[in-house]
Each structure stands twice: as C-alpha cells, then as structure tokens.
Amino acid sequence: MTENGDATPLVRVENVNKSFGALHVLRDINLTVNRGEVVVVIGPSGGGKSTLCRAMNRLETIDSGTITFDGKPLPAEGKALARLRSDVGMVFQSFNLFAHKTILENVTLGPIKVRGVGREQAEKRGMELLERVGIASQARKYPAQLSGGQQQRTAIARALAMDPKMILFDEPTSALDPEMVQEVLDVMIGLARDGMTMVVVTHEMGFARRAANRVVFMSEGQIVEENTPDEFFTNAGTDRARDFLSKIL
Ligand code: ADP
Ligand code: MG
C-alpha cells in the first residue's frame, strides 16, 4: 500500500452515464482516482466494470457526464487520444499479445512506433522490464511458448514500457490456471508498492487486502459502495455487497 501524501486526482469520473441500446450500463457514476492510489473494483458480472474501465481510456464513449485525466477532459481523437492511450495502460483478461512477435518485440513495439524511441534503447528498457516481471529469459520466445502467467506478465511489461501514469487491469487473473494467479498478483503488488496508480477489476480478495487503498463495489451500473478493503470485507455497508461477498468468499 502506498501512502499518498498530496492526494491529487489523476482521474475524475463525474455523473457518467452510458447505455448500449436500451441497456443502461453506467448509471450516474462518480469516481475519483488519486495519484498513487490503487482502487479495486469488484461486483457481479454484467455490472458495468469493464465498460467503466474502457471509458477511462476512451475505448468506449460515454453518453453524458465528464471524465477528466490529469486535469483535462478525455480527448476524442488524434494525437491527444494516442497520448492518452499510452498514458493509461490496459491489461486485459485475455493478454492480447501479438502472436507472431517475440516477447521482447511485444514490449518494444509501442515505444518504437508510438513514442518514437530508438530500437536499441527500447530493447534495453524492454529487457529491464522483462527482468522486473521475472521473464527476461523468455525474451526471444513467442507468446504461445509461454504459460498464461508468463504471458500476462508480458502484457504488464508491455504496458509499463509506455511509462504510463496509470494502469487499468480488467480481471487480469481470471483466465489463468490457479497456480499462475499469484505470480501475476505479485507483480501487481510490486507495482502498487512502487506507487503506480492502478484501477483493478478483480475478485482476488488477497490482492485487495494487501494492495488496495479503496474498494469500489459496482452492481447493475451503479457504484453501490466505496470503502476501505478492511471495512468492505469484514463489515460491508450494503445488503447488495454482503450478498455478493457471501457468494464468492
Ligand atoms: P462487467 O465487466 O461488470 O461484467 P460489462 O461492463 O462488461 O460488465 O457489461 C455491462 C453490460 O453491458 C452487460 O450486460 C454487457 O452485456 C453489456 N455490454 C457490454 N459491452 C457491450 C457492447 N459493446 N454492446 C452491447 N452491450 C454491451
Ligand atoms: Mg468485465
């Protein structure tokens, strides 16, 4: 857990609504993420967690309300949008690595293509990042040759390679075999300790307890409860949260 001295907002989500056709998926969402903070988002499937994450780096548009990042409204297009996407890293359940590129190439591609970093420098930094997530020895292999846990750690290194101001994790361990979950969570706990701003959709209670500053419980498109992890897991304030917890714990 990071102590957050100045507590300045990095992201502000205000009165955000989003529908898919008749389905009202985000209902008047308000959420602030401060610099250096780790916010865990938890809740039943279909509650809008992924849509909220995607809205935060504009992979999804919103119908009303505002989202600001670093004090500015999210850009709609062009260079500013590309910049936002590199400032806000995203790690998905399904890794999304390029199958025909090596592990190191997956990590260096963004810096070279988007940031204009030279190959040599990108590879040096890429190797440092692979070292940091514990898979430097796999650098020349292809994704299919790695375990799911190693692929997800590659995806984290790839996000880090862009020097993001924040990383969104959308159920990063849900697709993994149980024995690989912890190695990915350990990397994430390390990032949290180093002060990375993180929004993490996960049902991993151990991670939430160890790394989260706040837990946000989302259900049916609403933020039903926002709490400290200790309070949330031992003494949730709402029936909906208690009901959900009784099913997953
Ligand atoms: P969660 O991540 O909490 O499971 P989602 O944000 O993925 O929830 O989805 C919320 C609701 O929005 C679900 O009912 C889902 O089927 C629907 N939904 C998500 N994306 C789309 C889309 N692109 N088009 C139509 N419906 C969608
Ligand atoms: Mg989801």
Automatic annotation (TrEMBL):
SMART domains: AAA (SM00382)
Domain of life of the native organism: Bacteria
Subcellular localization: Cell membrane
Recorded catalytic activity of this chain's protein: a polar amino acid(out) + ATP + H2O = a polar amino acid(in) + ADP + phosphate + H(+)
Enzyme class of the recorded protein, top EC level: translocase
Keyword hit for 4Fe-4S: no
Topology in membrane: Peripheral membrane protein
Gene3D superfamilies according to UniProt: P-loop containing nucleotide triphosphate hydrolases
GO molecular function, one term: ATP binding
Nucleotide-binding among keywords: yes
GO CC terms in record: plasma membrane
Name of a matching Pfam family: ABC_tran
Residue ranges occupied by any ABC transporter domain in the UniProt entry: 11-245
Keywords, comma-separated and alphabetical: Amino-acid transport, ATP-binding, Cell membrane, Membrane, Nucleotide-binding, Transport
UniProt-listed Enzyme Commission number(s): 7.4.2.1
Protein family membership: Belongs to the ABC transporter superfamily.
PANTHER family: AMINO ACID IMPORT ATP-BINDING PROTEIN (PTHR43166), GLUTAMATE_ASPARTATE IMPORT ATP-BINDING PROTEIN GLTL (PTHR43166:SF9)
This protein's name: ABC-type polar-amino-acid transporter
